[in-house]
Amino acid sequence: MKTKYLNIGLFLAVFAMLFTACETDRDDNPVLSSGSKPTEFVLNPSALADQFLALENNKVNLTWSQPNYNYNAVATYQIQVGVVKGGNIQWQVDDNGANIFLATSYSVCEANIDGEEIAEAICKIDGFKKPADYVDQGMREIAIRVCATINDANKAIIPNTEILSNAITFKHMQAYNAVKDRTAIWVIGNCSGWKEPAEGNAADLEAWKMMETDIESKVWIGTFDMPDGELTFRFYSKLDGWDGGHSIGFKEEDQATDVNFDANGIYEGKCVTPGKGSWNFKNFTACKLKLTVDLKKDEVKFEKVTE
């Protein structure tokens, strides 16, 4: 009976600690006792484990058990991919050997993973840096496991709550060229002749293309000669037409908003995606204009360039 009461006491103590961590603004994270370290975390075998599975335009379903945290925990789950080579698994890790997980995380014990995420991870394990590097490796044995953690209100992992599941393998899985490259956005406005952001106008819009500063940086920078007069423009991240949903603007509504540069010739503000609302500068004096679009912060910066 003593053991039973001790277990109940441990449960109440841990629950109170986590509740306090959520309700109290504190600089340190609570540390769970060693007795609360999670156990019994099982990734279930897949019915497709022995099937031939091409990842392009497919999803991979996984289910797993909830880790035993000795209390009713709400965990965050992330997926890690590995390539089986010579009977060993080469997991996706960074340059320091730390585990890298797929971008999408889950709060339930099931995932329908987009094949593109898995293929991208496989390409990184294979060392392909850009799309031109890709070489088709055919069907291979691919390993997957799940990592469970409990995170605080700032999404930081609470120490002593991380646990990796067992690994399962798919005997015949085929990746494809999912290597990421720098992307482009286009300046669309009266400066570019209000040409529709469509593939048929790609050549005409080449001069109005801004390239991403680095792969997946979500920051684009370009400098353009802007003409005299009223200057109105917004951006598009794909050439799929006016209503393709890839506009980046001052606001959602298709309406120009008057804005101004400060005394240093700089305009800074927020942007929305999708957003058809254009920025409008009245009585603009012709000059080079450096444009920066940061979609990690949803911000833009326009700077007059002085020679």
Characterization of this structure:
The protein is mostly beta strands. The chain folds into two domains: 30-174, Immunoglobulin-like, CATH 2.60.40.10; 184-305, Immunoglobulin-like (Sandwich), CATH 2.60.40.3620. The chain is 12% helix and 34% strand. The protein is built from three helices and 18 strands. The strands form three sheets. Strands 9, 10, 11, 12, 13, 14, 15, 16, 17 and 18 form a ten-stranded mixed beta sheet that branches. The radius of gyration is 25 Å and the shape is elongated. The N and C termini lie far apart (83 Å).
What's the structural blueprint in terms of helices and strands?
Layout lengths: L1 H22 L28 E3 L4 E5 L12 E10 L2 E4 L18 E5 H11 L13 E11 L13 E2 L3 E7 L9 E6 L12 H4 L3 E4 L6 E8 L2 E8 L10 E2 L8 E2 L7 E5 L8 E6 L2 E8 L4 E7 L2
Parallel strand pairs: 1-8, 14-16
Antiparallel strand pairs: 2-5, 3-4, 3-6, 6-7, 6-8, 9-10, 9-12, 10-11, 11-17, 12-13, 12-16, 15-18, 17-18
Low confidence ranges: 1-31
Per CATH, which architecture of the largest domain?
A: Sandwich
Label the structural class: mainly beta
Mean pLDDT: 88
Sheet of most strands: 10 strands, mixed
Shape: elongated
What string gives the helices and strands in order? Answer: HEEEEEHEEEEHEEEEEEEEE
Quaternary organisation of the protein chains: single chain
> What is the alpha-carbon Rg in Å?
25 Å
In short:
With 307 residues, the protein is mainly beta. The chain has helices spanning 2-23, 115-125, 202-205, and strands at 52-54, 59-63, 76-85, 88-91, 110-114, 139-149, 163-164, 168-174, 184-189, 209-212, 219-226, 229-236, 247-248, 257-258, 266-270, 279-284, 287-294, 299-305.
